[in-house]
Amino acid sequence: MKLICIVGPTGSGKNRVALYLANKFKGEIINFDSRQLYKGCYIVTAQPSEEEKKICAHHLYGFLDLDKNLSAGKFAEIAEGKIQEVFNRGHVPILVGGTGLYLKAILYGLAPIPTVPDKIRMQVIKQYQELGPDKMYSLLKDVDPDYANKIHPRDKQRITRSLEVYYHTGKNITWFHKNFPTKESKYNYIKIGIWLDRQELEKRLKQRIHEMIGAGGIDEVKTAWEQYPDRKLPVWTSIGCGELLDFLHGKYSFDQAINIWIKNTRQYAKRQLTWFKREKDIIWLKGDILNGAKKNVERFLNED
User: Which site among 12, 78, 94, 205 is 20 to 30 Å from 194 CA-CA?
Assistant: First the structure.
């Protein structure tokens, strides 16, 4: 079974490339971005528009309630079912997103990390409540700086999970990833990476944020908060959602919130690139990206 994977930092134009390839090669798009799973915050998490969805089938966007979590392992199970459905229709699955761990879970599975006892899990939750996100993220950086650099500083789920594993085993998440070799993928895949220089990417990120505001992003976040007024939910660690919520609550002025949003988005894009640059099987494209993607995918699909 052949898969096309489109990777790259937020705002790089991955979905544009995926739509182009879907049109050329009879494809269907499957999301692997952890924040684009959520219902309600469609604009601020940059989910495909209704017009884009008419071009080809899109899967695993906007299906998860805002008060739910979805582990990488569970997501991979769901995604594998969608991949099989697309393949059974005689179409090409095109995986698109920026959450490297989710893609890794689909292609290779995850390291067998031991189950953490409930007692330790509850201790870490209590610790998080007492110390707060900044201090807990600092603790994670002390015991697992590599993993800390890959996640958002307020990603409660991943911060607590990582510390639970460390407290229980004495080894960090990075140790498990390094000491359990990646299995051979059950899929035959090609990874296309979208590369933009820093100035061009930052320009696009700023433009996209202002477009989100113009499209109704503030009202979207306001409505979502009215339905799910719990700052501990993972959706409120999503870049854009958190900053706009702080604006609505009077913590920041509008301009301050936008500037922080831009800064956090830029830092997130940097973390994504750090993750993907470690992968040696990505074909990075710059310049005439659409034509380069077409040529590489055409060659891949025609291989025996």
Answer: 78
